[in-house]
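Predict the 3D structure for this chain.
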Amino acid sequence: MAKPVIVSAVRTAIGRSFKGALVNVSSETLAINILTEVVRRSGVDPSEVDDVILAELNYGGGDLARHAAVASGMESVPGQAVNRHCAGSLTSIANAAAHIGAGAERVIVAGGVQSLSTSPLMKWRVPGSDPMEFKEPWMPPSHPETPDAPARDMSITVGWNTAKKVGISRQAMDEWALRSHQRAVAAADAGKFAEEILPLKITQADGSVIDFAADEHPRRDTTLERLASLPVLHPEIEGFSVTAGNSSGINDAAAAVTVTADDYAAANGLEVMATVRAWANVGVTPADNGIAAANVIGKILDRTGLSVGDVALWEINEAFASVPIAACRAHGIDEELVNFSGSGCSLGHPISASGARQVATLIYELRRRGGGIGVSAMCAGGGMGGALVIEV
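Done. Predicted structure below.
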């Protein structure tokens, strides 16, 4: 049976939604750019690509993957849209690896795109209304809402519920967030992101063109005192400890990898960057959404027979700082090996692109360190979690 391997990995820099460099850059444009570049870097002839699988969320259902394939001149390549909320692009890569491992396909591009800045606004017809009434703007709920798990307020459903359940203090979350920013800034200063980022030419409203090649969300001047001074998001809830500072950002970006069979890569002289060893997904009670990251880590370790000590580096998405803290406590993971170049609190959380961003960052860092096993894991809206194991 063929082994699925990654032969290229790339992401855009991460912008701040609604006010950053990507504010006027559409999902389609991001998808076209990332698809074109990840195929170019792979060394695969575009005519050899069998499929494109891209995660998308709050986009409206146009199938970005197929749109990008056609716009990039790959008209014979179909496209698949995936939605598993935050874990969408991890699922895209897992789907690609499954197709490759089964021998169904030879080359698949997988990843995700998020442009909250240009997402369409939806409206919903109120059932039974006559004449018809609409609720607008409207966002589909991620799960059936309960008092302890609002469907549209993840600061409670994910951040606060996790902190309460695990006993994580405000200070612990602020300290994690501070370290996230410090690590992201240090990685940028060391040039670590240069290999994984595709610089974009962005036309501004005044017609000028800028080069966008650096993540906008990390804050160089963040201090523990400044984080501690931020107001909580729900002061009406006694003891509430989630703030904008220990939460992820609202962001735009795209990221993708090219997955092929190991024998195809060898036959075509392609450089193998990583092997996809395993993937897993879980569901939990929506009120335990943030615990899903810890649960899926347990599942994938059991599935692979790996121990925590076998893993060289971890990416555990900082949807809220409480999530990776809870996962580390659950499994005894060394925090020094987690989110080594920052994560959602600092780099930002471009929802559908975050999983593929994590995988790309893992690959390049493991290569710098001489190889090893990396795990990318995250919780996902609706009470889900996803994880992927790679080896470099």
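The longest helix spans residues 170-189.
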